[in-house]
Structures are given as C-alpha cells and as structure tokens.
Design brief:
Length: about 325
C-alpha cells in the first residue's frame, strides 16, 4: 500500500465527518430561520402561548384541579348550580361555580380540555396516517388505482362531516373510542387529497426519476424520497384539522351522542348548562364555551402561521 493510498483512505473519515457537520449546521440554520419567521407574527405567538398554557393546564389537571369531576361519589347535589366564588359544603371556593351535578366548573373545564385535545389529536393523527398512505399510493401508482381512490375521496367529502359522524355514532353508540373512530372516518379524505396533490408534483421531479433509474424499490422511493417532500402541507392540514376535530367532537357531545356524562368534554359541559341560560345561570355554559373558543382559536392561529411559513406563495 502506497503512501498516497493511505492518505486518501485517511481523508475519507474526515470528509464524512465534515459532511455531517455541514448537514447539522444547515438543518440548525433552517430551524432558526423557521422559528424566526414564525415568531414574526404576534398573533401566532399569542395563539401558541394560549395553546401551551391550556394544554399544560389540561395535562396537569389532576394536580391543579380542586376536584376530580370523574369521581361521582364525591359530588354533592347540594353544591349544584353554585355561583362563581361561592364556597361549597366541602369548604373550598368554586372560582367558576358548579354545574347541575355539583361538579366544580373549573375542574370540569380542565379535564374537558384534556379530553378534547386527546380526542382531537388522536383522531387527526390517525386520519393523517390513513390519508397519507392512500394519497401517496394513488399519486405514485396512478391510473385506475388513482381514479378509484379519488372517487372514494370525492364521495366522502361530498357529505357534511357532521352528518357522517352523526350516522356513525348513532350506529356505534357513545364513547371516546367510538367518537375517535367517527372523526377518523370524517377526516382522512382531507389528508389523502392534500398529499396526493403534492405527490403528483413531486413525482415528476428529477430526483424521483434518478431514484427510479437506480432501480430502488418502490417502498424506498415512496417513503424515503417522495414522502419527506410532502410533509409541509400535511403539517398545516394536521394543525387545522385538530381544531376542526375538537369543534366537531364538541358539537357531537352537545347533541348528546358524543362522549358520555362520566367524561365531561367541553361540548357536554356547554350542553349541561344550556337549559339554565334563561334562568340566569350563565356560567354553566358560558365558561366552557369561552374555553372552547380560545382553544380552537389558538390552534387556528398557529396553523394559519404554519401555512404562511411553510408555503411562501400563500403569504399575505
């Protein structure tokens, strides 16, 4: 082995290490650029702050809430419909009052936010996975497969989401798992159409042709090359659809076919106080409604800013 070959071999690890450092610095600079551009919008920062505070409060609800609204044995009918700031028979003050079952409304709202975030987040992510798989498959294979899948998507999106969810829950019954399933069925078509549109554009790029020319497997081309370049619009749709899923779940619970009474979501809390509005007991519906408004508004503000940052052509 000559000295030149040894020198060349010694340069390989250094070159590899240099490449890794350059890639790390590039990804870091892109992250900082993304964060700076996102932070340029005061509305997005306010929405993100509200979302973080509400999600944190909901996550630590067992530690923050003065009462467990799920424990029916600790509820007293004597404490029902207490006005905000009134002390209960248990000795502590209900800052937001109580509902018709004697539940502390602040505790019920914190637990309700957690349920809404879990149901909306799980259903949106599951729908994302299903829609992403079907949309990428339709765009990559094309032909009859694409036509059939897109006709199914068109059929799904032609029906109002609330109508489809109502029919499914009328058949399946009430429950968190059944509500999540209904929301998945309602949402997957949005992701499928979004990822298909992006994949059709990316499919004609040179790097996809090069990957095919190298005879890489279809799985590798689809998931290693095509999917990463379709992630940006999917993230935007995911953020917005979480807000839509929370709103739809609240609507279903308000109508009495979503979550059961033992799992008070924000929509169910609003429904429980709706009958008392004309009696002057406004807090039972108003405060959960305000919480739902701020939760969905914060998610939409973050999603709107993500759309502008990840899609420069849509910036206003």
């Amino acid at each position: 082995m000559t000295d030149s070959s040894v020198a060349k071999g010694a340069l390989v690890p250094k070159a590899t290490e240099t490449t890794r450092i350059v890639k790390w610095h590039t990804s870091r600079s892109r992250l900082f650029e993304f964060l700076a551009e996102f932070a340029a919008s005061p509305a997005a920062l306010i929405g993100l702050a509200i979302l973080v505070i509400m999600a944190g409060a909901a996550f630590f609800a067992p530690l923050i809430a003065p009462q467990d609204p799920y424990d029916l044995s600790r509820l007293s009918i004597l404490d029902s419909r207490l006005a905000p700031g009134t002390a209960s028979s248990g000795g502590y003050i209900h800052l937001l009052g109580t509902d018709g079952l004697g539940r502390d409304l602040l505790s019920a709202i914190l637990y309700g936010i957690r349920i809404s975030l879990i149901v909306g987040g799980v259903s949106a992510v599951a729908a994302l996975v299903i829609g992403m798989f079907l949309g990428l498959t339709a765009a990559y294979i094309g032909g009859r497969v694409d036509s059939i899948l897109m006709r199914i998507v068109d059929l799904q999106m032609s029906f109002p989401p609330i109508l489809v969810a109502l029919i499914l829950l009328a058949i399946l019954g009430r429950g968190a798992d059944k509500t999540i399933l209904a929301l998945i069925v309602v949402q997957w078509a949005y992701y499928a159409r979004t990822v298909r549109g992006s994949a059709l554009v990316e499919r004609e790029r040179e790097y996809i042709e090069a990957a095919r020319g190298l005879r890489l497997s279809h799985f590798r081309v689809l998931w290693k090359h095509l999917l990463p370049n379709c992630i940006s619009p999917l993230l935007v749709v995911l953020t917005i659809q979480i807000g839509h899923a929370i709103t739809l779940e609240a609507t279903l619970s308000f109508l009495g076919i979503g979550l059961p009474e033992t799992q008070p979501s924000l929509g169910l809390l609003i429904s429980n106080g709706y009958q008392y509005l004309l009696s002057g007991l406004y807090w039972i519906s108003i405060y959960p409604g305000i919480a739902l408004l701020f939760l969905v508004l914060s998610i939409n503000l973050v999603g709107d800013r993500l759309r502008d940052v990840l899609n420069p052509a849509l910036k206003r």
